[in-house]
Design a protein that fits this description.
The complex is a heterodimer of chains A (103) and B (393). Chain A is of the alpha+beta class and 103 residues long. Chain A has helices at residues 45-53, 60-71, 75-91; strands spanning 15-16, 22-26, 31-36, 39-42, 96-97. In chain A, strands 2-3-4 form a three-stranded antiparallel sheet, with helices on one face. In chain B, the strands form two sheets. A nine-stranded mixed sheet of chain B has the order 8-7-6-5-4-3-2-9-10, covered by helices on one side. In chain B, strands 11-12 form a two-stranded antiparallel ribbon. Chain B has 14 helices and twelve strands. In chain B, α1 (61-74) packs parallel to α2 (92-101). The chains are: A alpha+beta (103), B alpha/beta (393). The A-B interface holds A 1-2, 5-6, 18-20, 22, 24, 26-29, 31, 33, 35, 37-44, 47, 85, 88-93 and B 1-5, 8, 11-13, 15, 26-27, 29-30, 74-75, 77-78, 103, 105, 107, 129-130, 132, 164, 167-169, 171, 195, 197-198, 239-241, 243, 245. β4 of chain A pairs antiparallel with β1 of chain B, so a sheet runs across the interface.
Amino acid sequence: MAGPRNISVSEASRPVLPRHAKLKYDETRQVWVILAPERVLAPDEIAVEVLQLCDGKRSVGDVSDQLAAKYAAPREAILADVIVMLQDLADKGFLTEIREKTS
Amino acid sequence: MSDVTIPPSDSLAVLEKQRSTAETFGIPLAVLLEITHRCPLQCPYCSNPVELDRSGKELTTEEWKKVLSELAEIGVLQVHFSGGEPTARKDLVELVKHASDVGLYTNLITSAVLLTRERLSELADAGLCHVQISFQGVEEGLADRVAGYRNGHRKKLEVAKWTRELDLPLTVNAVMHRQNLHQLPDIIQMSVDLDADRLEVANVQYYGWALKNRAALMPTVAQLDECTEIVEEARERLKGRLTIDYVVPDYYALRPKKCMGGWGRQFFNISPAGKVLPCHAAESITGLEFESVRSNHSIAWIWQNSEAFNRYRGTGWMKEPCKTCEFREIDFGGCRCQAFALTGDAANTDPACALSPLHETIFKQAEREAEGETSRFLYRNFAGGTLESENGT
């Protein structure tokens, strides 16, 4: 079953790239890319770092904690940036999330 | 994050800065593989050449595998298995598996009518990343008539469902023209109902088979304006739910399309017989020699050095009014195949451009055809086409 779409990214979300969006290092061009249907996205360094942490287990909050510690930067600012970046990806249809089973 | 994307008929882009000069070109990010021209459908706007490659000329399984390995090696990231109908090849699963093994992202561009659930599932297991299914309309009366294939529409709906059940992303490809544009709102809704990720609203581009059928297909200006409004409204309403790519026909535009992102800049495709082509219609330009993957040259060499790719690359080949035009590196003078088909010289300005001396004539002709009575199709086939009967069968 496919993950949910049209998601709204928040601190508690546990996002992950869907099966059809593949993060890959392009050896020829020496850049990171996201391969998607009829699209190739060129994520910047920060986006790559965030996406590598988005495994469907960590929450957006966890990811922000990790980045804040790594860069000794204010967590709230990082959290806000991460949410904007992920929401943009979600709006393009290239992000899904893991949800708790409600049953 | 920058989104490097080109409309579907042009399909694919290279990773490059927006304003790079005409002379710089890298290996395309994605390549279209037309693995066969065989197809059970007979759509009158088929993008295949009027002279189709017969099955005896098709590359073998081993030859296609070698092509796939070579493409991955030189930096291609995505391949589109297309045709004709790619599922007409018995070795499709094997080819998809090989493409996945060498690290390529794989798309299947299909009419779907030959697929069973079992075969689709095998393709998914082989690593297929994305399925694109063509629809000719929203109900079987019109859709099956356009395709020249009975019960095709019903089958397509079924395969679209299987695609989502197998957790594969789905693109609905809808080729639009005068006889089906009124169904566009329903086609958008059908795409939502099928749980598609993407919808391509692709207006017919008029060369090859479509040029032969232009009088039966050309939309009116009013239809097109409405079509654009419908797409814009739906894009806003369905944001985050359904991506809509929109290809406008260029006949009613003032500026030509940047066809293929410029000849030999962002795109190549490989024909069933292994020819490396700057676009899928390029063989319609007579007098150009295209190199084959069966030659002694590598694909990268053909892309960079062959005469056919270099002939219309950049701006050096241009005549007036293109030569001194301020837009010459924006649209590269439009479509070479269209320039050839309508003026007899591929180096002329594409008549879709308002600066072409032929623009007015062609626009008026298209407008007359759009208002005309002709609705019978010339169906695409290996026999050079068959005219639809009077009662539409």
